[in-house]
Structure formats: structure tokens, C-alpha cells
Amino acid sequence: MEITPSILTADFCNLGETLDEALKAGISWFHMDIMDGNWVINKTITFGPALVKSVRDFLGDEVFIDCHLMITNAELTWKQFIDAGADMIICHIEAVDNFQNLISKVHSHGAKIGCVLNPETETSEVLHLIPYLDLVLVMSVVPGKGGQSFMPSVENKVRELRKNIDLQIKNGGKKTKLMIDGGIKDHNADLVSSWGVDIAVVGSGLINNEGTVEENLIQIKKSIKT
Ligand code: DX5
Ligand code: ZN
């Protein structure tokens, strides 16, 4: 299972240092949490395309950057994040009117797109989209901030999506990735890996004052046995 840092909990005045630590630790996928102060329940505002551009310029072209769009008008603004340097946008099924249409627009723009479900959203909302998606993201916290507690109740949803995607790949379909996001630490990384998650987003478990990104990453990777 791959680990990708959410930079949400970083000190943005020392972001270059944090990114350098992550690169040194061998991280090649970065998760940027975009919140517009409207869509998420606690009305958080994080950052926009300008920071995405700075992060892309700093990291160079080798790494993969996704933007998790927790915003009200993703269908109108998604292109700003791709043009700023993101490889993929991950949009909420709860926030997009015509997801199928968005998928074709993003793909014709040469970018990748994922679909994210809030903890209470059923898989039935996205199953018909999976054949066209580059990634499905299951939230294991209610979107809005880093450092929240993990919700194990999403297990069945993750396992059902895993089964679905495996069948799709077996039948020659898209190799859609399965991601989880929220509350992942060294005490539950192995659990979600055993559920069949391909990539886990880790924010406060990687970027914190306890240790460097590298030390925290080693801790988490050591805990993964499956
Ligand atoms: C929550 C974000 C998550 C969060 C993860 O709204 O989508 O990416 O930053 O942070 P931790 O790992 O601290 O829960
Ligand atoms: Zn996120």
C-alpha cells in the first residue's frame, strides 16, 4: 500500500522543508486538500491553485500531485488545478451534478479524475462510474480538517469497492485505484491495507512535531504486514 502525504497540516512558511523531507523519504505522490470555506461542514478554507503551482514548481515533474476538491463549484473550477500542475483532481460525488460529463471533460483535457465518497455515502452512488474513473476515494473522516479520528465503519464500503474494481480489472477494464483518506496512522495502516486499499492519505500521521516525515513514514510502513 502506497502512502501519500496530505500537506494540510504542514507549516506553510516551512513547506519547502516538509516537501524536501518527503522527497528524501521516497514519497512520489502528494495529496492537496482544497476547501473553499463553503462545502465542508466546518466551512474550512485551505488553499487554491497558487499553492498547487508553487508545490509543483518546487517538486518538479517526476512526482504525482492530486487535488482533493472539497468545493462547491468543482465542475467550473477543476481546470485551474490541472493548469496549476495537478495530475489528478478528486471530486466529491455529493458535490458534482453530472459526474460522467466531468470525467469526459477531464480526460479530454489529458488529466486524471477520481471520485470521493463521504463516510455516509453508499457505494451504489458511484458503482456505475468506476469503469471510467482513475481512482475511487473513500473518506474515513468527515471532510473538513486533519487530525480527526479514523472511522472503521467504512470497512464494508472499501471491501465492496475492492471486489468491484478487481472484477473490472480481471475483465480487462480500467485499473482504477482505491484510496482511503482520514485518520490513518501506524495503528490502523495495516488494517486498511488488509481491506485492499492501494493508496492511503496520511496527514497528521506524517506531518507533525513528533518526528520528521521520514521517521513517521518508516513507522507507518513498518506497521504494514499485509
Ligand atoms: C480531511 C482531508 C484529509 C486529511 C487527512 O478533510 O481530506 O486529507 O487532511 O489528514 P489526517 O491524516 O490527519 O486525518
Ligand atoms: Zn483529502
Provide a descriptive summary of the structure in words.
With 226 residues, the chain is of the alpha/beta class. It has one domain (2-223): Aldolase class I (TIM Barrel, Alpha-Beta Barrel), CATH 3.20.20. Helix content is 33%, strand content 19%. It has helices spanning 15-24, 49-59, 74-83, 99-108, 155-170, 189-194, 213-223, and strands spanning 2-5, 29-35, 64-70, 88-92, 112-117, 135-139, 177-181, 199-202. An 8-stranded parallel β-sheet has the order 1-8-7-6-5-4-3-2. Bound molecules: D-xylitol-5-phosphate (DX5) and zinc ion (ZN). Zinc ion is lined by residues 6, 31, 33, 68, 181, 201. Residues 6, 31, 33, 68, 181, 201 line the site of zinc ion.
Low-confidence stretches: none
CA-CA gap between termini: 9 Å
Strand content: 15-25%
Helix/strand order, N-terminal first? EHEHEHEHEEHEHEH
Helix/strand layout:
Blueprint: E1 2-5, H1 15-24, E2 29-35, H2 49-59, E3 64-70, H3 74-83, E4 88-92, H4 99-108, E5 112-117, E6 135-139, H5 155-170, E7 177-181, H6 189-194, E8 199-202, H7 213-223
Parallel strand pairs: 1-8, 2-3, 3-4, 4-5, 5-6, 6-7, 7-8
Zinc ion binds next to strand 2.
